[in-house]
Amino acid sequence: MRYCDSIFGALLKSVSRRSFQSIVTRHRGDRYAKSLSAWDHLLAMLFAQLTGAASLRWLEADWNAHAHHHYHLGSGPVARSTLSDANTREARAAVFTELFARLSQQAAGVLKREGDAMIRLLDSTPIPLPRLCAWATSNGRTRGMKLHVAYNPHADHPMRIEITLATINDVTVGRDFPLEPGAIYVFDKG
To answer: What does the angle CA 20 – CA 24 – CA 27 come to, to the nearest 5 degrees?
Structure first.
């Protein structure tokens, strides 16, 4: 069967293993590491961030469950206690700080070219109504309505608005907003 890169592997393509290893060598990031290299540590922490790991125990179980991807990522299984120890080492913090600075510089060039991209902000705000409005529903915090807005920050004006009952979720209304090709939509998990 032909190998197909995982999404996680594709995200890591911007991190050069050679430059990462030079950072590790400079800061002596693998100095006392017996089983968890700086690369394994980086992959585990990125995986934790992207999957929303609630604890090291959860991270260990989920990362090790995807062992079939470890070979292609150049990594291996992790242990909770080893991750805990590695997270306290100052050398690793310095490695990750310098890696972030390099990736930020790399992204800055791309962001300058794409800085004029169409950005749309989607958000909502409650409109409280007094108890005299018997038709107004409550979502547990606010009795009234909700104003949903698609906002263009470059033009400084709303692109579209919709008013619903307070019980209607932002995602439900956001799905009905027309999407513009090439636009980047930013919203919270509200």
So the answer is: 135
pLDDT score recorded for residue 59: 87
In a domain, 1, yes or no: no
What are the structure tokens assigned to 185, written together? 């939509």
pLDDT of res. 2: 58
Specify the pairing of strand 118-128 against strand 137-138.
unpaired
The rounded Cα 159 to chain-centroid distance in angstroms is: 26
Residue-wise over 45-65: b if at least 16 C-beta within 10 A, else e? bebbeeeebeebeebbeebee
- Partnered with residue 164 across adjacent β-strands are 146
Q: Which pLDDT belongs to residue 34?
A: 81
- The number of distinct structural domains making up the chain is 2
**Cα distance from N-terminal residue to C-terminal residue, the chain:** 42
* 108 CA to centre of own chain: 18
Last residue of a domain, one of 51, 86, 113: 113
Report the run of H or E that residue 144 belongs to, with start and end: strand 143-152
Positions in the chain whose pLDDT score sits under 70: 1-4, 108-117, 131-140, 189-190
Q: Is residue 2 part of a domain?
A: no
Residue 107, domain extent? 7-113
